Amino acid sequence: MDKIDIKIIELLQQDGRMSNVELSERIHLSAPQCLRRVRMLEEQGVIRRYAALVAPSSVGLEVTAYVALSLDRAQFKQVREVEQVIKAFTEIIECHTISGDFDYLLKVVACDLKGLSHFLTDRLMQVPGVAGLRSMICMEEVKPVSGLPLDLQAQLDKG
Known about the structure:
Order of helices and strands: HHHEHEEHEH
Number of helices: 6
Oligomer: single chain
Strand order of the largest sheet: 2-3-1-4
Mean pLDDT: 93
Strand content: 15-25%
Low-confidence stretches: none
Radius of gyration: 20 Å
């Protein structure tokens, strides 16, 4: 990737609905050249997809929680099956494997605390292979989802 590709990514992270013409004008490249670069970034998997970021509370999802989940070591050979169940839960909007005392960190949304409790107790904890969890309720969103910081390497090189 060169500086033009990085600029394309930065601009599309800010506004994924930006037209190719506007994008090409902002990076000072012809529209066909710009489109070729965007398509290449998509084909390479650099740009995974385009999506609208929706404010959870605007659609009735008032509670966000991070849930650290541990697996039963005796059933660890079924880890991929557990992951498929986790992927199917729409309440889980992010899932990461982690190091430390737990195996996964989940970001979970719910309408209210009762709904979260129901999901954790009656659904997630009932998944075969789940040994335990620890939930942390988000009180306030300080920094919402943002684009990736593409200038980190440049900052390191200067420092």
